[in-house]
């Protein structure tokens, strides 16, 4: 009898980790979800997954959770509400790297972001860069998924349009298109990557079927709702005020502002290196609008 391949998956309480776990289970693979509490794993245990409890700052618990698997999907979740979120990201990156070595993990697929190749001026994305640097030093086969802007980041704006007929955007100019991707597509591609063979470190850039602008979202909402939806750019001077009450710490807000400035200026974008693997998801902005507005 052939032994079922077993993969560890972190971040299953979030969108991409859940999509990875679902894709692997649907393909008949074994899945071990790594969660902070046993209760968080109950829904996955009911679907046939193993459950391992480990914190991403606990080397021993995490290495035990990773041991005996064919590979792992890794996400280092940002602690946006914390003042020390960048230091916490450093600790998690170091813990993940050390635990992966201790577990003799055969391979890893780690969620990162476009812009992680830049050394400065990237704000929150510097946490992705930290994870990349720590994992690269392990010498293990690692795939970094440098994902484009998440389409689901538009969820609050879509809700605003549903309630008020308009929404505001940090991204500008309003007609400027940038690469975007849905989190379900990230999860599916990550699961596919886990089943591939590679050596050392590789980068896969992820985007959707085409780039989108705030105006594209407004047009999609207009078609969906059958009435005009307007979009307004938030003046940069008002960004910090607009983020008050978001639950983000002052440090996180500063990081968000720097990141968004870099997105708007084009500092953050895909690499121009032709040898980098770039893969596309199939989910469109219309699909996201339909999902959220249903």
Automatic annotation (TrEMBL):
<dbReference type="InterPro" id="IPR051604">
    <property type="entry name" value="Ergot_Alk_Oxidoreductase"/>
</dbReference>
<dbReference type="Pfam" id="PF05368">
    <property type="entry name" value="NmrA"/>
</dbReference>
<dbReference type="InterPro" id="IPR036291">
    <property type="entry name" value="NAD(P)-bd_dom_sf"/>
</dbReference>
<dbReference type="InterPro" id="IPR008030">
    <property type="entry name" value="NmrA-like"/>
</dbReference>
<feature type="domain" description="NmrA-like">
    <location>
        <begin position="6"/>
        <end position="249"/>
    </location>
</feature>
<protein>
    <submittedName>
        <fullName>Epimerase</fullName>
    </submittedName>
</protein>
């Amino acid at each position: 009898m052939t032994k079922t391949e077993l993969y560890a998956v972190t971040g299953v309480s979030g969108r991409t980790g859940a999509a990875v776990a679902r894709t692997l289970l649907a393909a008949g693979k074994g899945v071990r979800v790594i969660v902070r509490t046993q209760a968080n794993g109950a829904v996955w245990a009911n679907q046939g997954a193993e459950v391992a409890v480990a914190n991403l700052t606990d080397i021993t618990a995490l290495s035990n959770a990773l041991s005996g698997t064919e590979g792992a999907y890794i996400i280092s979740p940002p602690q946006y509400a914390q003042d020390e979120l960048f230091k916490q990201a450093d600790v998690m990156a170091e813990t993940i790297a050390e635990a992966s070595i201790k577990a003799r993990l055969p391979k890893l697929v780690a969620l990162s972001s476009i812009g992680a190749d830049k050394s400065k001026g990237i704000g929150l994305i510097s946490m992705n860069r930290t994870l990349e640097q720590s994992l690269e030093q392990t010498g293990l086969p690692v795939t970094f998924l440098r994902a484009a802007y998440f389409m689901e980041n538009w969820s609050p704006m879509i809700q605003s349009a549903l309630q008020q007929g308009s929404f505001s955007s940090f991204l500008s100019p309003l007609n400027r298109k940038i690469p975007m991707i849905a989190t379900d597509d990230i999860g599916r591609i990550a699961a596919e990557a886990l089943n591939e063979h590679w050596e050392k470190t590789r980068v896969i850039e992820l985007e959707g079927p085409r780039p989108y602008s705030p105006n594209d979202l407004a047009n999609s909402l207009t078609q969906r709702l059958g009435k005009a939806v307007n979009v307004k750019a938030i003046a940069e001077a008002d960004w910090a005020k607009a983020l008050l009450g978001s639950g983000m710490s002052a440090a996180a807000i500063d990081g968000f502002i720097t990141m968004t400035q870099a997105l708007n200026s084009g500092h953050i974008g895909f690499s121009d290196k032709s040898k980098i693997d770039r893969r596309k998801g199939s989910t469109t902005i219309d699909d996201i609008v339909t999902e959220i507005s249903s």
